[in-house]
Amino acid sequence: MRQARPRSRPRGPARVPLRWKIAALAAATACLVTAVVGVLVHVWSARDIRERAEAEAFNTLYSAMETYRRTGTLTGGAELDPAELPAELRHLSDRDRHTAYDGRIDNNVGPRVWAAQRVPGGGGRVLATRVNMSSELHTLRRLDVVMVVASLVALAAATPLTVYGAGLLGRRLRRVSETADRISTGDLDARTGHTKGRDEVADIAATVDLMADSLSRRLRTERQFTADVAHELRTPVGGLLAAADLLPSGETEDQLRARVRDLRDLVEDLLEVSRLDAGAEQPVRARVPLAEVVADAVARTGLDTEVRDVTGGAEPVETDPRRLERIVGNLVVNAHRHGGTPVRVTVGGRTVVVRDHGPGFPDELLRDGPRRFHTGAKERGSGHGLGLTIALGQARLLGAELRLANAPDGGAVATLRLHD
């Protein structure tokens, strides 16, 4: 357990908000769709332009060939063996009409589609016509530009709407996340409440609330059980202690009395834990000298502990002295029971540091915090594991901060910081 306050979510690389991810995905999808549609439209339009140009070239060639047969004159721009005629049309082996595409552009003229046919009885001469597609391709380029501009305008209009819609979704998810985070830190009264919509987010919110209800019921049942057990044990244990005190002195009797006192202390600790869990405790604050309260608390433990006041009589602090003594006493007893000597308590300003020179706190304790009836590593000694739990509960009640850590050179360090 690093500290008494709730553990925060682990920090990692800077997160990208969900709305920006959704907006980026929507923009990428829109760009992909626009690109695919644009390419398809461009290819279809270019193919249509070429097919219409070929049909026009065929028709022009047919008319020119009929006129040339009857009158011997060239019409419709027809030429005999023109110099620009593509190579594949220069030597035709049949009298069929053939076409070829010429992609050259000269002085903004082109590309062209040629249609050619061998002249019957013309000694292998070829009659050819051409259709210039520059105007149609210019129109195609304008269509491409219009599509790009329209796509950009649509993207610019759709992106803010996507960001807004994704922001609504992100806020709903953030509300569920904040509720789950509060539950994970121990606030079992946290609820998401009614969530608009009938989608997966609403289902998650309802599931989180149901989980919190279930955990709250189980925790209340556990707390009530602990309180009931402690109350039921208090009377018989008190009677057992009174009976043990009446026994004559002896080694066996002394051991019995010691075990009964341990049992009484355990019952009292259980009652204190149950009261802290139920929120039934209220601090009674007063202005007291911190160093003197700490020294008295250490003295009451009866353990050999060094106390240092590095501030030299600082101003009094406002706190509940009884609960402060309880915290310090538990930390000192824990240091002696599970740590190693020397144990030193240092008071400075509004801070109390309890340091021992034992094996230190187990990694599990630092990571997950103290667990009831669990003392961590075996080398830290024995006990019922409620001392640190009570210390943390009392610190929270006082609004103080209790941090548990290990010193670099070995030993456990508990730091209690009282807030203003």
UniProtKB/TrEMBL annotation:
Signal peptide: none annotated. It is an enzyme of class 2 (transferase). It comes from the Bacteria. InterPro entries: HAMP_dom, HATPase_C_sf, HATPase_dom, His_kinase_dom, HisK_dim/P_dom, HisK_dim/P_sf, TCS_sensor_his_kinase. This is histidine kinase. GO terms for cellular component: plasma membrane. The chain crosses the membrane at residues 20-44, 145-169. PROSITE patterns: HAMP, HIS_KIN. The keyword Membrane applies. It is found in: Cell membrane. The keyword Phosphoprotein applies. It comes from Streptomyces kanamyceticus. It holds the Pfam family HisKA. Gene3D superfamilies: 1.10.287.130, 6.10.340.10, Histidine kinase-like ATPase, C-terminal domain.
